[in-house]
Amino acid sequence: MNATRMAKKTPPPSLPARRTRGFEAASKLMERQIRAAGEARGFAVSRLLTHWAEIVGADVAAQCRPVKIGYAKGGLGGTLTLLTTGAAGPLLQMQLPGLREKVNACYGYNAIARIVLTQTAPMGFSEGQAQFTPPPRRAAPAPSPEILQAANACAAGIENTSLRAALEKLACNVLTKAQKTEGHQK
Asked: Cα 171 from chain centroid?
């Protein structure tokens, strides 16, 4: 019995460090993975990627985005590569010195010595890559008068005007969808 008491206990397997506070932001939980992905493309400071529009301005951010940063062996300062469409290339070329100053202000020192523009074709296989802003949403076609009449009849007994309007809109959407699915089944 004494022999078993004197035997050293093996420590439990190492557990991940426990958080002492309750909930944490998702960005805090993913910080290591995001940093590793950014550093693989040369971005030591991920803020350049995540806050691009704030750093260079919304008008420039709509025309280009950062792709990678390359560093020469033994050289000072890196080369930032920006992706842009062919039409915006000449306009951005004139703004490169100002862009370089803004990017270096993000880093806090002269980290970027050069900026290179990579232009993609406005059409073809690179079309999905060159699109920096989402396309405008198409307006839904107006429902037929029969559907509008049926939707008004569904919500006729409701006295509250905002609730009645919401229910009419819901009924229009449901009836329009039902009409479309009937049309596809025939």
From this structure: 34
Instruction: Give the C-alpha separation, 133 to 171, whole Å.
Output: 33
Fold of 30-130: GMP Synthetase; Chain A, domain 3 (3.30.300)
Q: Quick check: 99 and 71 in contact, CB under 8 A?
A: no
Give 6-27 pLDDT, tens digit per residue: 555 665 666 556 556 666 676 6
> Would you say the C-alpha torsion 129, 130, 134, 139 has a positive or negative sign?
negative
> Where do the domains of the chain lie?
30-130, 145-185
CB neighbour list of residue 10: distance below 8 Å, 6 or more residues apart:
none
Contact status, residue 49 vs residue 70, Cβ threshold 8 Å: no
pTM: 0.45
Phi-psi region of 151 (alpha: psi -120 to 50; beta: other; left: phi over 0): alpha
Q: Which residues of 163-180 are buried (b: 16+ CB within 10 A; e: fewer)?
A: ebeebbeebbeebbeeee
- β-partners of residue 69 are 80
